[in-house]
Amino acid sequence: MPLRKRRFTADSIVLCNSRLKILNLNKQASGLFQPFCIVTPSFMVDFFDAATTDEDSPDIEDFPGYEGRRRKAALILVTFWSATLVLHISPWGSWLVWGLIVLMVSYIIRVLLAQPLEPPSPLPSSRGERVLIESESVPDGANQGHDWPFVSILVAAKNEESVITKLVDALCALDYPVSRYDLWMIDDNSSDRTPQILDRLVVQYPQLNVVHRDGEATGGKSGALNQVWPCTQGDVLVVFDADAKVPNDLLRRVVPMFEQPNLGAVQVRKAISNAATNFWTRGQQAEMALDTFFQKQRIAIGGIGELRGNGQFVRRQALAQSGGWNEATITDDLDLTIRLHTGGWNIQFLVHPAVGEEGVTQPMALWHQRNRWAEGGYQRYLDYWRLIISNRMGLTKTLDLSVFWIIQYGLPLVALPDFWLSLVLGRLPIFLPISGLAFGLSLVGMYQGLRRTHPHLSSLQATTQTLRGTLYMLHWLLVIAMVTLRLSVRPKRLRWVKTTHIGLEDEFQMDAS
Q1: Which helix (H) or strand (E) holds 413?
Q2: 348, 390, 326, 325: which is closest to 261 by C-alpha?
Q3: How open is the CA angle 369-247-290, to the nearest 5 degrees?
Q4: Is-contact 316 234, C-beta < 8 A?
Q5: How does DSSP classify residue 90?
Q6: What residues contact residue 230 under an 8 Å CB cut-off, 6+ apart?
Q7: Higher local confidence (pLDDT), 219 or 398
Q8: Cα 378 off chain centre by
Q9: Could you tell me if 1 and 342 are in contact, meaning their C-beta atoms sit under 8 angstroms apart?
Q10: For a FRET experiment, which of 12, 178, 464, 507 has its CA 20 to 30 Å from that of 126?
């Protein structure tokens, strides 16, 4: 979605230069996506040219806030519950459901049979090793990376003293020319030792910049990223969480993917670094494998690729045209996904290597995290429904999004009235065939995803993990059902709930296979 020209005020402008290392922000930027800095006059020209709004394109101001979402969510709830009642009492209701199943099955078969493309060859190592690219040996020092795309890495951190040092050390030692990337660590008003640790590390690494936000700063993670990314000079912007375990060669493997001119972003597969801890972390590992399988399969047929926050690479031009990160949502990655696709951009997915992250180990923490994910995922449909139904993404993407919306949100939305009516009328739930289809699809996707992401697993091991992961995934039915109901009846302010990271990891390895 194109962005209006940004309005700068005296309080919100800071001129950045190459010597900037530590910046303290004591003033709020006014407006939803107000940057606080400009880099060079030429960058300002490019930025404003890319940010010019097309008169025929909806702006962020065309979409209401939470109250508007509540009304739309209530309308959807009433409509789907009423439709469930009509299907139960109508003689043609079951035929309509079976007709929908036939359409969904035909599309799902196409998804399952798709053949994902292999990623391009990585860039040669920047450390002088002899590497093999397209069957040609590159001599030591032949490519110093002077013409490689510039990459800017952004990390928003709040109270991350347990993990922040390891992350900075790893990101400042990536196998990518130091002159072609920089790192921006954003301390989001931490109350622990995170600010002091970052101020110490900034002296150590020339590519590290540290930004401190005060208690008046708003917008959560999105606000932190929006304040900083206009200061960067990267052609590609990368976002990691503070607990990320980043493979050394990741930039060299992802950057060549942006040679596709219409590629707006790349999401790197996420792996649970402490998967062996307990049932919940093992379940999250299977969940990530399921997501990996369907991301690759859907993208292979021209469907929707989605961002997942940690390990997302975004083309600068695409981000500018999309209006930056949305501060009026609690899942900025899912929101940006829709903005990119409706703006004509594609999103790709990289399976190997994966970015590690710390899995949630306690059920209540998992419940809160998944509620936030479900709420943010549902909000994007409420916000951008006009763009979706107007086919701004194209027929294939719109169809793909619709099928997976039915599976992910539609079925949990109607589960309660469908079950209640089946008891009252003494018949099977009318959506039971679609539920069975979704369950079978999940089993196939999780098994294939585990075999794809963990090739060392035997068939028996993959089957065991699939069954355990499927049991774990049942919590999503309750989460989404409660979220869709809550959004419809209870007003609530946007709230960012931080997931605590304590530096847990077990057998996680940085694979580059």
Answers
A1: helix 411-425
A2: 348
A3: 45
A4: yes
A5: S
A6: 6, 35, 36, 37, 38, 39, 47
A7: 398
A8: 14
A9: yes
A10: 507
Contacts of 53 (CB under 8 A, 6+ apart): 2, 3, 4, 5, 59
Q: How far is CA 282 from CA 74, 289, 479, 509, in A?
A: 35, 11, 19, 16
For residue 37 the two structure tokens come to: 């800095």
Dist. CA 152–CA 8, nearest whole Å: 23
Element (H, E) at 266: strand 263-272
User: Does residue 134 come out as left (phi exceeding 0), alpha (psi in the -120 to 50 range) or beta?
Assistant: left
What radius of gyration do the chain's Cα atoms show?
23
Give the position of tokens 């992961």: 469
Q: What angle do CA 132, 512, 333 make, to 5 degrees?
A: 120
Dihedral angle computed from the Cα positions of residues 158, 159, 162 and 165, in that order, rounded to the nearest 10 degrees: 50
User: How far is CA 356 from each of CA 15, 63, 182, rounded to the nearest angstrom?
Assistant: 35, 35, 21
Whether residue 511 is predicted with pLDDT greater than 60 in this model: the reply is no
* Total Cβ atoms within 10 A of residue 444: 15
Could you count the other beta carbons within 10 Å of the beta carbon of residue 381? 18
Residue 380 in contact with residue 335, Cβ under 8 Å? yes
Q: What is the pLDDT of residues 229-275, one digit of tens each?
A: 999 999 999 999 999 999 999 999 999 999 999 999 999 999 999 99
Nearest to 213 by CA among 133, 159, 274, 281: 159
Where do we find the tokens 């979605």? Answer: 1
Smallest CA-to-CA distance from 299 within 376, 428, 174, 401 is with 401
Round to whole Å and give the CA distance between 232 and 108.
41
Residue 122's contacts (CB-CB under 8 Å, 6 or more residues apart) are: 133, 249, 252, 253, 256
| Other residues' Cβ atoms within 10 Å of the Cβ of residue 406 | 18
H and E: helices and strands count for the chain? 16, 12
- Tokens matching residue 465: 């993990």
The single-letter DSSP state of residue 277 is S
* Structure confidence at residue 23 (pLDDT): 66
Q: What is the dihedral of CA 357, 361, 365, 367, to 10 degrees?
A: 90
* Single-letter code of the amino acid located at 349: F
Residue 286 structure tokens:
């299977």
Q: Looking at the DSSP assignment, which residues form a beta bridge with residue 23?
A: 211
Among 14, 19, 350, smallest CA distance to 182 is for 19
For tokens 């649970």, the residue is: 272
Structure tokens of 338?
């829709």
- HEC profile of 288-303: HHHHHHHHHHHHHCCC
Length of the chain: 513
pLDDT tens per residue across span 95-107: 999 999 999 999 9
Find the Cα–Cα–Cα–Cα dihedral 333, 339, 341, 344, rounded to 10°.
-140
Residues 102-146: tens digit of each pLDDT = 999 999 999 999 999 999 999 998 775 434 333 344 444 445 567
